[in-house]
Amino acid sequence: MKPLRSLLLALLWLPLPAVAQQTGTLTLVEGPLRLIRGAAVLQGTRGVRVQPGDIIESSDAGFVQVEFTGGGIVALGGTTRVLILGRGAGSTAELLLLSGWLKSQAPSSAGVYRCDSPLLGATIENGSLVLHSTAAGAEIFVESGSAHIGEVSSDGNWRDPHVAKAGQFFSRPAAKNVAVSARPSSTFVDTMPRQFRDTLASLASRFTGKPPQPKRDHEVSYSEIQPWLTSPLTWRRGFVRRFQSRLQDPSFRRPLDAHLRDHPEWGPILHPPDPKTSPAALANPDPQNSRRNSQ
Amino acid sequence: MKLIVKFNLVLLLVFAIGFLSVGFLTNRLLQRNAKQEILENARIMMEAALAVRSYTSSQINPLLKTQMKYSFLPQSVPAYSANEYFKQLRKKFPDYSYKEATLNPTNPINRASDWEADIVNTFRQSPGLTELVGERSTPTGPALYIARPLKVKDPSCLECHDTAQTAPATVVEKYGSDNGFGWKLNDVVTAQIVTAPMQLPIQRAHSALSAFMISLTVVFAVIFAALNVMLILLVTRPVNRLAKIADEVSLGNMNAPDFQASGEDEIANLSESFGRLRKSVVQAIKMLET
Description:
The complex is a heterodimer of chains A (295) and B (290). By secondary structure, chain A is of the alpha+beta class. Chain A has helices at residues 2-13, 18-21, 186-191, 222-229, 239-243, 250-258, 267-270, 279-283, 287-294, and strands at residues 24-30, 33-37, 40-43, 49-50, 55-58, 63-68, 73-76, 81-87, 92-106, 112-116, 120-134, 137-152, 158-164, 169-173, 179-181, 215-219.
């Protein structure tokens, strides 16, 4: 029985079939692209499949197009950080835009796309929108179709969702309420990546063969992942488990510890409570120790 | 009056009459042709402008549809592309001008002036009328124009020209909500007008006429000179020599040289006859003396 049991256990540990994990394909990559998968930094290139949990970071003048199963297309402008959460319940594709520019184009077949930034979030179905996020504020322009726009609270949850029509523009400076206008601001239009002005064209048909494997570059450093570790609370669920393996590296552990106040969830991992002085230990002292001490 | 003078006077008179009548008729013909040529060029230009309009609305406009949601792009407007095309054309043909005169345009630059509005209204009142050609006086002189009606045939035109509420927001943002709306399908809203100064056909006719008249004059001068030389060499000079010999013979100089004429023309026949007459006269005198 023992070999059979071992085999079954081994099968459980095998990765899921690749197709099941794949969410989309990088169909256009201009400039260097950093792909953080697990705790490793990979080099993203055209044709590489992206998976739920992948973090995509474009370069200064970069442009990236990701095409998802179902026909949805997402474009990223320069200096953009996005976390792909994949499809949640009710076939909603979720993307978290930490900073930069994102254009989401969802045809009717693509289902609902939810794009959140630290200040504003949007869901769109059968339409397209552009989301811009900086530390100073967030802006959303509903290019076509209708969308729901919500203010994102500091913990990452939505509040006061609005129904938005095509052509409407939402802006929310940091620590202020959302403002709606009939036209996008000239600054928004002027600074938006030029490629966003056009309808995103699908290139997925060019990537039907075996996808290239992204080249592993290095293990993620603290400075690379810090913006994500300090992102809204609900966004960073699972990060402790995901990046825990990096604690063995002092160059990761030291700055993480130094900024513990920004991400306190790492406290119990970095400084596990002493079993002797923990409240549980004090309340329930080890009988063996007591006996030893009494002897 | 000498024969050559008479001959030349008649020749000059004929030439003067011919020169004037040919000049007059040719001038009229050349002016008519130049005008027709200008109108034909204008028609080709208008057809090309229509082709550019059609290309813009069928191919460029769909490509710019998304961009138009961010900012107004005149490149998506057929009238703009037609005007831009003509602007390039004018670099080589500066005398021609083009306008899409519109009664209620979005861009005020296309608004029809008084005389252009009359043309648009004429087309609106006469649906069968496909072209108007006319002349009008302008501060720079008389001008020739050709106009054609532009109908709203494509329903996609109404995306921007039906109401301000349904028009792209960027169009309203750029030009306001007062102008360029309320167009109806199949209405004549615009007249394509190509104008060229009348000076242009006149100049062309004049330059062609002067070239023709100069050629005609040169040809006449050559003919005139050739005829004079021929007349002197073949008629005047032999007749003078013959007259001189006849004079000498009549004065009793029987040793005067014979008149030698070669060939078989009239002068040769005359000299032969004169020789025979002289011989007869000499023989008659000799017979009288004996």
